[in-house]
Automatic annotation (TrEMBL):
It comes from Rhizobium vallis. It comes from the Bacteria. Residues 3-92 form the ABM domain. This is Antibiotic biosynthesis monooxygenase. InterPro entries: ABM_dom, Dimeric_a/b-barrel. Keywords: Monooxygenase, Oxidoreductase. GO terms for molecular function: monooxygenase activity. The keyword DNA damage does not apply.
Length: 95
């Protein structure tokens, strides 16, 4: 059964444009990652620095393997350099 993952980000105001460009690259490339079924990027209309990802993965294990690879290659540090605070993530499944 697939899982739905939501990740809420708060970008630094001066890094917002660069962060959105980074996420556009992620959206283009992530579906080629093993287990990733879909990704959506949502930007809060009233608080533009508030951005969320909604990702669908085949399993939590596949998602965690993806994150471990990003951390190992230094990509996560690059993402964090754009953020005002650590992201908040939640896993969901169909009820």
């Amino acid at each position: 059964m697939s899982i739905l993952l939501t990740i809420a980000f708060e970008a630094k105001p001066d890094k917002l444009t660069a962060f959105l460009e980074l996420l556009a690259t992620v959206k283009a490339e992530l579906p080629g990652t093993a287990g990733c079924e879909d990704i959506r990027i949502l930007q809060n209309i009233d608080e533009p620095t508030s951005v969320s990802l909604i990702e669908t993965w085949g399993s939590r294990v596949e998602y965690q393997a993806h994150v471990e690879a990003i951390v190992a290659n230094g990509g996560w540090d690059h993402v964090m350099s754009h953020l005002a605070s650590p992201p908040v993530s939640f896993y969901f499944q169909e009820a």
